[in-house]
What we know:
Blueprint: E1 3-8, H1 17-31, E2 35-40, H2 41-44, H3 63-73, E3 77-83, H4 91-98, E4 108-114, H5 121-133, E5 137-138, E6 143-145, H6 162-182
Parallel strand pairs: 1-2, 1-3, 3-4, 4-5, 4-6
Helix pairs in contact: 1-6
Amino acid sequence: MPDLMIIVATTRPGGVGPAIAEWFDERVLTHGRFTPRTVNLAELALPFMDEPNHPRLGRYTQQHTRDWSDQVAASDAFVFVMPEYNHGFNAPLKNAIDFLHQEWARKPVGFVSYGGVAGGTRAVQMIKPVVSCLQMVPVTDAVAVPFVQNCLDEHGRMKPSEIHDGAATTLLDGLARWTAALRQP
Length: 185
C-alpha cells in the first residue's frame, strides 16, 4: 500500500493543525488505500534553511536534512494540513519544502486547509505554483475547514461535518488515482 505523509504545517503553540490531522489520519485509515504517517513540523523542528548547497544537488551537510530527505523520499503521496495566515501559507511549511528538491518530484499532493471565512483556500492557491515547480502534482479536490474554531469539540478535537468527510474521501480518491498513475514506469 502506498505511503501517505500527512504534514501538519502549523508550528504555533496551541494550533489546531494536529487535531485536524488526527481526524484526517482516521479518514485515511477508513479509506483503506494508503498507509498514513503524520509529520508535525513543530516536532520536526527544522531550522530555517542552513544547508550551504542548493537542495537540487542533494549534497546535504546537516543530519536533520538527511533525515527529512529520507522521510520525504520514502513517501508516495502527501497531504498538507495547513493554516491560512494573512491570505497565504505559513513560513515553516515553505521552509520544509525548500530544504529538499528531488525527493518531492513526481508525487501527488493534496490539501486540507483551515482558517476563517475562506477556510484556507487562499493559502492553497498560493502554494500550488510552489509544489508544481518541484514537479509535484497538486490534486484539485481538497478539504477546506472554514471557521475552524466552530469545528472543534470541547476537547479540541475535530468534529467533522458530512461535507468534511465527503471532501476527505474525494481528496483521497484523487490522491490514489494520481499515486497509481505516477508510479507507472
